[in-house]
Structures are given as structure tokens and as C-alpha cells.
């Protein structure tokens, strides 16, 4: 019995330049979509961050009537920047006022590495009295259920009215010590980080604040 061989079907050859063009086009389209998504979402992200920051400023300054932004330009704080200077690139603090226009304190941010990642806080500070008005954690990735206790009122409320420099203590804070902050058992690194970064920020910003006030606070 004679068998007839099956015909060989040759697959059409695709030119390499077509493959390259297809892959390149797909990559360009993906890149364009990423850029468009970034452009579309970035203003909304920035607006959200501004809203969160504004709420935090009001919280740590005890609901001021209004607040000014003070920029660190050169080696001095200024409320008004020279023409052509981009304030977005400069460090800043915020000065709050009561309804009568009297300054009530400064909102200052600080950030240092904690146990898992940087811990960022914002705190209100009365430079005349060397006193913390309030503190709020803005950013933290500390261990859930333990390190994240730094965000709870049981810890944060301790900072209200505390005198600088702050002092972390284990166990209950001694009565009559205006600087003592009771650290969280099992999260002493996170607790210590906040205390240290606030002390560092106060030591850095206080001379600048003093100079700004001596010069009338109008620059």
C-alpha cells in the first residue's frame, strides 16, 4: 500500500522590522498612558496633601485664626520671597495667629528613621515659652499593633504643654517633670525617634525663629 505524504505547510515569515515596530509601538503606548495617568493624578495628589497638611497645622496650633508660611531662604526665615525664587524647593515652617493677630506658635515638621521607615511628625511650638503645643504623626510605617501606637492619643496627647528639650522615660512619666514623655513599651525605638527628631528640629529652628522675631517678623 502506497501512502501519500502530507503536504508541508510553511508558516508565513514575519519580517523582524515588523516585530520591532510592534513592540516599540506597544512600549510607546504604555509609556504614554503612564505619563497621562501621572499628569492626571498628580494635581489631585498634591491637593490632597495640601488639605491634610492644612488640617494638621490647624490641629497642632490649636485652631489658629490664620497662619503664614515662613520660608528658609539663605540663613533666615522670610515671609516674602525675592522675585524669581521658587518657594516649592525651600524648607518652611508655619506661624499661627489668633483672631487679634497675635502670634500663638509655629508648626514645624520633622522626620527621622524609626524602626521600619522614616517617621514624619508635625508639631506646634511656642518659642517664647519653649513649649510644645501639640504633636501629630503625618507619616509612619511602623509595625501594626505595636509601633503604630505612636499615632494614638495615649501617646500623642502627652506632648501638649511639654517643655523643650523633651525627655523620654520608661514607664510612667514622673509627676512634676514638665519635659518627660512616657515611651511606649515594646516600641521604644519609635517613641525615641519622635522625641529625638522634635528636639533636633527645635534646636535647629529656634535660633532662626528668634532672629525672625527680633527683626520684627516682617521680612
Description:
The protein has 219 residues and is of the alpha+beta class. The protein is 35% helix and 24% strand. It is built from three helices and eight strands; from the N terminus they run H-E-E-E-E-E-E-H-E-E-H. The chain has helices at residues 16-60, 153-156, 188-214; strands at 66-73, 76-78, 92-97, 103-113, 118-126, 131-139, 167-169, 180-182. The strands form two sheets. Strands 2-1-3-4-5-6 form a six-stranded antiparallel β-sheet, with helices on both faces. Strand 5 and strand 6 (131-139) form a beta hairpin. The longest helix is centred in the N-terminal third of the chain and has 45 residues, at 16-60. The protein is elongated. The N and C termini lie far apart (107 Å). The model has no long low-confidence stretch (mean pLDDT 87).
Brief sketch in words of this structure:
This protein has 219 residues and is α+β, with helices and mostly antiparallel strands. It is built from three helices and eight strands. Helix content is 35%, strand content 24%.
